């Protein structure tokens, strides 16, 4: 399929301790869709995400097979500029980790590392990122205060905004509402809806219910295997595979 | 004995043992102060020895030790911190890095007199620097390297991994990550290690014995290729080699040396605690 934003082909991965974390995964993520990867913990969702922008490079002793195409280019090709890849496929982690420094410092970090010096451009990206992550109104008057002083939900949205400031093409969201109260969760979910107009989003959800709420399409993973991929309708109302049905109806989890 | 009793006994024994550790240090310092404080004056610090060193001050030796400590810093800090960054951030586990680590452990265990002899062979004779400040600084620097490398590596490894991952995920290169995230956080630990290493170097006698230290010099050194007097060696000389040496001068000299080493240690401790307090995570 040539229209895929990200195309995972025959991808397997084994960690140094012999854990077979991914078993021959094949899936396509289309532009501007919200693609949800769900399944029980240790099913390989995060591992698969970290392969896409090669954060997996940081883990030693990985054996990997297959290829992952981003805009048709293999991300594992030797000529891939990894820093550029990570700016274009930006990951937001499950545990929000602000870097030491102010909110503004956090927002500009990726831009500064990319060598962007123009204050006008930077300030514009900072504001837009914070607005898209629905946190601008809360922090616009204290951009110079420490990012550690923010609440958990604010940190989470700051980390999302920090990625958005890079204007990536794909955002990888690893459980972006972990530890958030229902109101903050709703805020984040609403902004996801806005974001996918501009970006392609791949997300590991907090729960099956969240997956069903936000997904355009979804993939169910179990023990490193891709059980089933389909549209929201099909996956959550009419799953083909018995294991998918058992999981979404809560028979195991 | 009930559990509470044995608990009380254990705490008592541990406290007593700790007190015993502190005691000798206090006694040494107080004894030096008692015998040497009367000699300390501006003249003692700022004047050269006179009359076969039985009068006057210790200025040339003090200056020499300051030069040697600075020289040691220049020689050891770039190498030591560089090696620590390499080992902590870049090196994996392979025969080369295992050899490097083994070498560092062994360097730390070499007696200081052996460093002195190596410095004599390598810097004084082979590189033809002569008995000079540069030869002494390089020898002391070599001796200080293991301390700096291991403390700096430890400081770098204690930086939370999350900061590296976040930095890299925002498109920073490895070096940008080290430069902007890792080193700023490791800095207090690195500085502490450096100062402790320098403190040890400032007080060493054996490594400078053949490489720089002069028994007595009428003039101050003019360049790094000149010999110099140095406090630890000067102390050795006036304590054992000069007959009829007034005790006050000996204890005064020892006190100054002790003061330099202890204040370096104190500065290291202060830097560590203040920079830690500013840390927000």
Query: What percentage of residues of chain A falls in helices of 4 or more residues?
Result: 25-40%
Count of runs of 4 or more consecutive helical residues of chain B: 11
- Give the number of DSSP strands of chain B: 2
Give the mean pLDDT of chain A.
Answer: 92
Q: Helical region count of chain A? A: 10
Describe the oligomeric state of these chains in a short phrase.
heterodimer
Distance between the termini of chain A: 33 Å
Biggest interface reads: A-B, 25 and 21 residues
| Secondary-structure-derived class of chain A | alpha/beta
**Going across the major beta sheet of chain B, what is the strand order?**
1-2
- Low-pLDDT runs of chain A: none
**Strands in their spatial order, largest beta sheet of chain A:** 6-7-8-3-9-10
Give the fraction of residues assigned to helices of chain B: over 70%
Strand and helix map with partners:
The complex is a heterodimer of chains A (253) and B (281).
Chain A: E1 6-14, E2 20-29, E3 34-38, H1 45-52, E4 63-70, E5 73-74, H2 82-88, E6 89-92, H3 103-113, H4 119-132, H5 136-139, H6 152-164, E7 170-174, H7 182-195, E8 200-204, H8 208-214, E9 217-222, E10 225-231, H9 232-237, H10 242-248
Parallel strand pairs in A: 3-8, 3-9, 6-7, 7-8
Antiparallel strand pairs in A: 1-2, 1-4, 4-5, 9-10
Helix pairs in contact in A: 3-4, 3-6, 4-6
Chain B: H1 3-36, H2 42-46, E1 49-50, E2 55-56, H3 59-90, H4 95-109, H5 112-126, H6 133-157, H7 161-169, H8 174-203, H9 206-209, H10 231-240, H11 247-278
